[in-house]
Design brief:
Layout (H helix, E strand, L loop, with lengths): L1 H10 L3 H11 L4 E6 L5 E5 H17 L7 E5 L4 H12 L3 E5 L5 H11 L3 E4 L14 E4 L3 H5 L16 E6 L9 E5 H14 L8 E4 L6 H13 L2 E5 L4 H11 L3 E4 L1 H9 L2 H4 L7 E4 L6 H10 L4 E6 L9 E5 L15 E2 L4 E5 L8 E7 L6 E2 L3 H7 E2 L2 E10 L5 E6 L4 E3 L2 E3 L1 H8 L5 E11 L3 E10 L7 H11 L8 E4 L13 H7 L1
Parallel strand pairs: 1-10, 3-4, 3-5, 4-7, 5-6, 9-10, 9-11, 11-12, 12-13, 25-26
Antiparallel strand pairs: 1-2, 7-8, 8-18, 13-14, 14-15, 16-17, 17-20, 19-20, 20-21, 22-23, 24-25
């Protein structure tokens, strides 16, 4: 077996080896800067992070952890969870993250489905479901400090680059979430190179991680930053004021979040006086962007580059990307633009009969396509068929390969035999003065099959009413796209990334 491991180490391309190499190349450079809302701060270098991960992996292997097992982590973003992820990979195992905001029932399902041999957590995040399964529990409290002063060797473990590195659970638009299996190879020859090719991240960058690590955006960013030798700032809060403080103090160069967050950031009283001059790039995904938010940032940081991008867990995060500085740089001025396919991606756009179309479902193939859904061959076969991953996303593609996101296939409103893109209607409503958020959904209707309903949040003190919104929509949209009903709400349900949860709205209306 020693010969097998030697040959394996000679040629393999696995994520955890990149941390080891960067620990040698950038030993004293900050890998992670962990900040809390209460003001605490700790800096961990690449050498320290790698040694910490080696310590965890050594302890777990000595306690009986075997290659091919699963390790789960739970908690808010922090140094310990990143170290647990890397230690898991060094052990030849697969890592999954439990959403700390989930109920005990949700966590019990994910533990039962992924069957982790170990659950890694802070003592403050320990939960009852851990005891209902046979998983051992590792509590992080004080472990980083225990790794200081002692050198821990790299585990001598055979790792297949086609083996599962991460199991990322989808947000669960159906009854239960799916466990997307992502391999080392997915990142090493597709997603991470794409980040580099597109100029999305460089080793000198200071990247602010705001996406939870249990999401594809979160664990993907960690993977790419650790592979590229960048510094990553991690917070235990997404409060705009806390984020602005971190940008100023750590001289953050890159950040990525949803349109909802950028709106909250602009609305913060701290934004006006904040020093955001270090920012070079802001990346946005997962929703419709607002003109007024971009204009506020352009005025604040004129040199700033924006990146609009699209991706999926099933595609190991990144699929398309587009860069702009001014709104005039966006093709056709259409804010639904999600850029062009990255170098590792092939795209088809097809209609319901599978024929090429200008507008239709996006099919993709790439080295980044997932291994499959964990223990779910039926849904895997539904998603990956005919040599293509069926994304379930409706897009438009122009002659220059620009892609414009229209809707999730399941969110298209089917009314009177016509299909309505919820994003097109949302884009029109966001133009109305006083509207700060909107979500358009289809509600069952005996006459029309579904009727278009807009759930709207308006600014405090705004005089906007249903009549004004309907009138504006009639001027901008075809009659069948105009909402039949406007539902005013104080807020819209969102996940931890700020994405609006339309399924919850449909259940409530």
């Amino acid at each position: 077996m020693a010969g097998d491991i030697t040959d394996n180490r000679l040629r393999r391309a696995v994520i955890s080896d990149m941390l080891q190499r960067n620990a040698a190349r950038h030993a004293t450079s900050a890998a992670l800067i962990e900040r809390s809302a209460t003001g605490s701060r700790r800096v961990v270098t690449y050498d320290q992070l790698n040694n910490y991960a080696n310590m965890l992996a050594t302890r777990w292997i000595e306690s009986g952890l075997t290659p091919g097992s699963v390790v789960a982590g739970i908690g808010r973003n922090g140094v310990d969870l990143v170290a647990a992820y890397m230690a898991t990979l060094k052990s030849g195992c697969s890592f999954t993250m439990l959403n700390h905001s989930h109920t005990d029932d949700d966590i019990d399902f994910q533990i039962g489905h992924s069957k982790p041999a170990i659950v890694a957590t802070r003592s403050a995040d320990s939960r009852a479901p851990f005891t209902s399964h046979s998983s051992a529990v590792t509590e992080f409290d004080g472990l980083l400090e225990q790794s200081f002063g002692t050198r821990f060797a790299e585990p001598d473990v055979y790792i297949d680059e086609s083996s599962t590195a991460a199991i990322v659970y989808t947000s669960g638009t159906e009854s239960r979430p799916k466990g997307v299996e992502i391999t080392h190879r997915n990142f090493m020859i597709a997603t991470t190179p794409a980040w580099s090719y597109e100029g999305y991240l460089r080793n000198l960058d200071v990247f602010l991680l705001l996406a939870p690590i249990h999401t594809m955006a979160g664990i993907g960013t960690v993977t790419n930053a650790m592979s590229m030798g960048s510094t990553m700032v991690v917070l235990d809060s997404t409060d705009p004021d806390v984020v602005i403080d971190a940008i100023e103090s750590e001289r953050v160069t890159n950040m990525s979040q949803t349109p909802t967050f950028y709106r909250r950031m602009v609305e913060s009283l701290r934004f006006i006086q904040a020093d955001l001059s270090s920012l070079q790039q802001c990346h946005t995904y997962g929703g419709l962007n607002q003109v007024k938010v971009f204009k506020a940032f352009v005025e604040k940081v004129p040199k700033l580059w924006w990146a609009t991008y699209w991706g999926q867990s099933e595609l190991s995060q990144l699929g398309s990307i587009g860069w702009f500085r001014q709104l005039e740089d966006i093709p056709g001025g259409d804010l639904r633009w999600i850029g062009k396919p990255t170098a590792h991606l092939e795209v088809r756009v097809v209609d319901d009969e599978g024929q090429e179309a200008e507008v239709g479902e996006m099919l993709v193939r790439s080295p980044a396509v997932m291994k499959g859904y964990r223990d779910d061959p039926i849904r895997t076969a539904e998603a990956v068929r005919g040599g293509w991953l069926h994304t379930g996303d409706i897009v438009r593609r122009d002659d220059d390969l620009n892609l414009f996101f229209y809707d999730r296939k399941k969110d298209v409103v089917k009314t009177g035999g016509m299909n309505v893109s919820s994003l097109e209607v949302e884009q029109a409503i966001l133009e109305v003065d006083g509207v700060i958020e909107v979500a358009v959904i289809g509600v069952p209707d005996e006459k029309w099959s579904e009727t278009v309903v807009a759930c709207v949040v308006i600014r405090d003190g705004a005089s906007t009413n249903e009549g004004a919104i309907i009138t504006h929509c009639r001027q901008r949209l075809a009659p069948y796209k105009v909402p039949k009903c406007i539902v005013f709400r104080r807020e819209l349900p969102k996940d931890l990334q700020g994405k609006i949860r339309k399924r919850v709205l449909r259940d409530e209306i």
